[in-house]
Specification:
Elements lengths: L4 H14 L3 E4 L4 H13 L4 E2 L9 E3 L13 E3 L4 H4 L4 E2 L2 H12 L7 E9 L8 E7 L2 H10 L1 E2 L1 H7 L5 E6 L22 E5 L4 E5 L4 H4 L2 H17 L2 E3 L2 E6 L5 E7 L6 H5 L9 E6 L3 E5 L5 E4 L4 E5 L9 H6 L5 E3 L2 E2 L5 E2 L33 E5 L16 E9 L9 E3 L3 H9 L2 E4 L1 H4 L4 E4 L12 H14 L8 E5 L19 H11 L5 E3 L4 E3 L16 H4 L4 H16 L7 H16 L1
Parallel strand pairs: 1-6, 3-19, 4-5, 4-10, 7-9, 9-11, 14-23, 23-27
Antiparallel strand pairs: 2-3, 6-7, 6-8, 10-11, 12-16, 13-14, 13-15, 16-17, 17-23, 18-22, 19-22, 20-21, 24-27, 25-26, 28-29
Length: about 600
C-alpha cells in the first residue's frame, strides 16, 4: 500500500465507481507475475509456450475487433478545441468524462482491480516520471511489468509526490458465475482512448490491446508527456536512441525519428557490416530529452521493454530483436505451432504443419489468410537485447550528438544530408513523411507527411509543437552543443522500381559519414537542401555492385525539389497561423536557393 493520500483517495473513487470484486496493489515481484500468468493459463486466456524453445514465455490471441491502436477512437480532450490541433480528434473534456463515467459504472464487477505503480524511465532519474495505472486486465499487468519499471520500488520513490493517473478497463463486467471470454473487450463503438492534457489524465475504456491498454506507452510517454515537456522545457519524442562506437573507441549517441514501416527497431539494433564499428541500443521507440547543466541534450529511454511487431522480424532482418524475445516474453496474435512455439510470416522458415492461426483456426495456405496478424506483437525485456547499451539505465541519460529524420521516399531525398543549423533541422523534421501508393492505404498516392514521426502521438497542436522545438534551440545555453540534425532515406529507387541501397546492416555506412561530420570532417558539399556527402566520402568498400548507384543516391534534383516545395506548401496550410514564422523563413530560403541552383 501507500501513504500517499491523493493516491489512496483516487483509487477509492474509482473502486466505488467501477465496483470490482477485489483490489490488488501490484508489487512487481516474480511471484505475483507467475501467479497472474498461471491464472490466465488456467482460465484459458493464455497458452504457456514450450519451456525448451521459449522459456518463461506465453501466448495470447486477441478478439478480432481488438488488434491495434484505434486512432479514430483516440481523443485529446483539451479545454480549447484549437489546442488539440488538426492532427488530433478533439472532445470536450466535461462531455467526454460524463460519457466515460457512465461506461465505467460497475464495469469491473466480477473482476479484480489491479493498481500498477510504474516509472517511465530509470527509478529516481530527473528525466523520469511516475504513473499509476488502474486496470481490470491481468494481461495489462504482466505486459506493464515488462514495458515499465513497475511495483513496490516505484511507490517507495513516489512518496507523497504527484503522479500521472491512468484508468483502464476492458469494459466487460461479469455476472455471478459467468465464464470469462478468452479476450474480454467492448465493441468498437464503446472503445475510447482519451487524454486530458491540462490534468495529465489518461482514461481508456473497452480495449485490451497494446497502446490502447498499456497506458505507459504512447498515451503517457508521448501524448501526455509531450504536453508536460512543452510546459517544463524538455522533449518527449517518438525516437530510437543508439550508441555508435568507431574503431578508435570514440562513442556518440544518435536519436532518430522515422514514421512506421521505416525500420526504426532494425536501426536501433543494427549489426554493422564495416569492421571495427559497434552499435548498441538504448531504446527502439521513445526518447525523453532534457538539456543538461553542460548545455548538451541528454536522453533516456522511458520504457523498460520492447513492444515489437513480429511479422517480418527474422534472424536476417533483425537478429538482435529475435534474440531479445527468446525467453520471458509475451506473444500476441502470432501463430502457434504444434510443439508450443510461435510463428509469423517472414520469420525465415516455413510454417510447420498443423499450426494454429491467430484466429484459432488450423492454418490453410489456400485460404490466403495470414497465420499471424500483420500487427502481431512480442513484449520482451529490453535488458535481454544482446546489444543493449551499458548506459541504457543511466539516470542522467546519454548525450545526443545527432538527431536523424527519415521516411520511405523512392525519389527526391538523397541517402543522407545534414541540415544547415537547428532551425533548418526543425524544418527538415516538419516535412518528414513517406511515399504511399493508392493501393496501400486507399487514398490518393503521394507523400503522407508524418512530422517528426509524431502525427498520431503529439498531444497538442502540431504548429505549437514545431514552435517548442524552435524555442528549445533558442533556450540552449550553448548553441554549438546542440545535436546536429540529419535526414536519411534508405528507400530511394531506380527507374525500374528497384532499391538503390541495400539497407539493414549496410546503413552503418551512412551513419559513419554522419559520425565523421560530427568529428569535423570536410566530407560534404553545400546544396540547396543542406550538406550532402562529397563524392567518395561514403565508405562503400566491399559493397559490390552498389558503387554505380552512389551518384543517383546522393543526387539533389532541382526539378524534383521544386515539385516537393509545392507539396510542402499544401502540407503547411493545415497548421495555418500556428506555424512558427521561423519555418516559413526556412521554407522561403529553400525556394530561393532552388531558384539559384
Amino acid at each position: 500500500m501507500t501513504s500517499n493520500e491523493k493516491l489512496k483517495t483516487w483509487v477509492k473513487e474509482w473502486a466505488d465507481l467501477c465496483q470490482p470484486d477485489n483490489i490488488h496493489w501490484c508489487d512487481g515481484s516474480d511471484e505475483e507475475n507467475q501467479m497472474l500468468l498461471d491464472m490466465m493459463v488456467k482460465n484459458g486466456n493464455a497458452v504457456k509456450l514450450n519451456e525448451d524453445k521459449r522459456p518463461g514465455s506465453y501466448y495470447f490471441q486477441s478478439d478480432p475487433s481488438d488488434v491495434a491502436r484505434v486512432e479514430n477512437r483516440t481523443f485529446i480532450c483539451s479545454e480549447k478545441q484549437e489546442d488539440a490541433g488538426p492532427s488530433n480528434n478533439w472532445s470536450d473534456p466535461r462531455e467526454m468524462k460524463s460519457i466515460l463515467r457512465g461506461l465505467y459504472r460497475d464495469c469491473m464487477k466480477g473482476r479484480t482491480m489491479y493498481i500498477i505503480p510504474f516509472s517511465m524511465g530509470p527509478l529516481g532519474s530527473e528525466i523520469s516520471h511516475i504513473g499509476i495505472e488502474i486496470t481490470d486486465s491481468p494481461y495489462v499487468v504482466v505486459n506493464m511489468r515488462i514495458m515499465t519499471r513497475m511495483g513496490k520500488a516505484v511507490l517507495d520513490i513516489l512518496g507523497n509526490n504527484d503522479f500521472v493517473p491512468c484508468i483502464h478497463s476492458v469494459g466487460a463486467p461479469l455476472k455471478p458465475g459467468e465464464k470469462d471470454k478468452k479476450w474480454p473487450c467492448a465493441p468498437i463503438e464503446k472503445k475510447y482512448i482519451t487524454h486530458f492534457p491540462e490534468t495529465n489524465e489518461i482514461w481508456s475504456f473497452g480495449s485490451g490491446y497494446g497502446g490502447n491498454a498499456l497506458l505507459g506507452k504512447k498515451c503517457f510517454a508521448l501524448r501526455i508527456a509531450s504536453n508536460m515537456a512543452r510546459r517544463e522545457g524538455w522533449l518527449a519524442e517518438h525516437m530510437l536512441i543508439m550508441g555508435i562506437t568507431n574503431p578508435e573507441g570514440v562513442k556518440k549517441y544518435f536519436a532518430a525519428a522515422f514514421p512506421s514501416a521505416c525500420g526504426k527497431t532494425n536501426l536501433a539494433m543494427l549489426i554493422p557490416t564495416i569492421p571495427g564499428w559497434k552499435v548498441e541500443c538504448v531504446g527502439d521507440d521513445i526518447a525523453w530529452m532534457k538539456l543538461g547543466k553542460d548545455g548538451r541534450l541528454y536522453a533516456i529511454n522511458p520504457e523498460y521493454g520492447f513492444f515489437g511487431v513480429a511479422p517480418f522480424t527474422s534472424m536476417k532482418t533483425n537478429p538482435n530483436a529475435m534474440l531479445s524475445c527468446r525467453s520471458n516474453s509475451i506473444f500476441t496474435n502470432t501463430a502457434l505451432t504444434p510443439d508450443g512455439d510461435v510463428w509469423w510470416e517472414g520469420i525465415g522458415y516455413d510454417i510447420p504443419e498443423n499450426t494454429i492461426t491467430w484466429t484459432d483456426e488450423k492454418y490453410d495456405a489456400a485460404s490466403g489468410k495470414p497465420a499471424a496478424h500483420p500487427n502481431a506483437r512480442f513484449t520482451s525485456p529490453a535488458g535481454q537485447c544482446p546489444v543493449i547499451d551499458s548506459d541504457w539505465e543511466n539516470p542522467a541519460g546519454v548525450p545526443i550528438s545527432a538527431i536523424l529524420f527519415g521516411g520511405r521516399r523512392p525519389d527526391t531525398l538523397p541517402l543522407v544530408y545534414q541540415s544547415f543549423d537547428w532551425n533548418h533541422g526543425v524544418f527538415t523534421g516538419s516535412i518528414a513523411g513517406s511515399e504511399v501508393t493508392a493501393a496501400a492505404i486507399g487514398l490518393k498516392a503521394g507523400v503522407r507527411r508524418d512530422p517528426f514521426a509524431m502525427l498520431p502521438f503529439c498531444g497538442y497542436h502540431m504548429g505549437d509543437y514545431f514552435t517548442h522545438w524552435i524555442k528549445t534551440g533558442e533556450n540552449a545555453p550553448e548553441k554549438d552543443k546542440l545535436p546536429k540534425i540529419f535526414n536519411v532515406n534508405w528507400f530511394k529507387k531506380d527507374a525500374g522500381g528497384k532499391f538503390l541501397w541495400p539497407g539493414y546492416g549496410e546503413n552503418i555506412r551512412a551513419l559513419k559519414w554522419i559520425f565523421e561530420r560530427l568529428e569535423g570532417a570536410d566530407n560534404a558539399t553545400e546544396t540547396a537542401i543542406g550538406y550532402v556527402p562529397k563524392e567518395g566520402t561514403i565508405d562503400i568498400e566491399g559493397l559490390n555492385g552498389f558503387e554505380k548507384n552512389m551518384k543517383e543516391l546522393l543526387k539533389v534534383d532541382k526539378n524534383e525539389w521544386i515539385a516537393e516545395a509545392e507539396l510542402i506548401t499544401t502540407h503547411y496550410e493545415m497548421f495555418s497561423e500556428r506555424l512558427p514564422s521561423e519555418l516559413n523563413i526556412q521554407f522561403e530560403a529553400l525556394k530561393e536557393r532552388l531558384l539559384k541552383a
